[in-house]
Amino acid sequence: MLVKTKAIVISSLKYQEKSLIVKCFTQSEGLKSYFVRDAFSSRKSNQKIAYFQPLTILEIEAIHKNKGTLENFKEIKIATPFQSIYSDIYKSTIVLFISEILHHSIHEEEKNEALFTFLETALNWLDTHNDIANFHLILLLEITKYFGFYPDISQLENTFFEMKEGVFSPFQAVNSLSEHESDLLKKLIELRFESDKKTFHSSERQIILKILVEYYGFHLEGFKKPKSLEVLREVFS
Known about the structure:
This protein is an alpha+beta fold.
């Protein structure tokens, strides 16, 4: 079946000497993996390595056999040529981290157009703004809406956030955050991408990042801590 769709690159893995296996989150088909033969050969000008950097947004034509095997691209082009994401150390570190999060979070081959649209909009915002210190924190929290475990904010006045149930409680249980940590999470819930970057101190961002990664671990089976987490911490320390 010939499919035309936008696709966000989640990961790429070198296969043998010249080929790639590329995992994409597509707008129309959900998660798909593709085999790119001779990706490192200059003869394949339509399948350049640059196309497969983390979170690149592509427009693709692909042959989907839908048999659980690797699919094949027919045509590829950049849908959104980013101006700053891959040249800015802060932004490139963020997209590497987010791509790892998505790699460990999206497993089902089902389309989720709302999540795709959110990610596309967020990446375009990142590319065109400079006050990005809280971007990855806001993004991680917002994505939980599409995965089904966004914190229940109906009792936000309560003191402690219980990680396993995802609720605010007046009592501190085994899996609850401390009062300070819970307050930081409440602050994050109120933030939007355009919010002032000085909302948190660097040390507070590190605490929130740790909380969010642990929160994903509570709610996503098989979730693994991203390898790029330490790099992200270093860059934003």
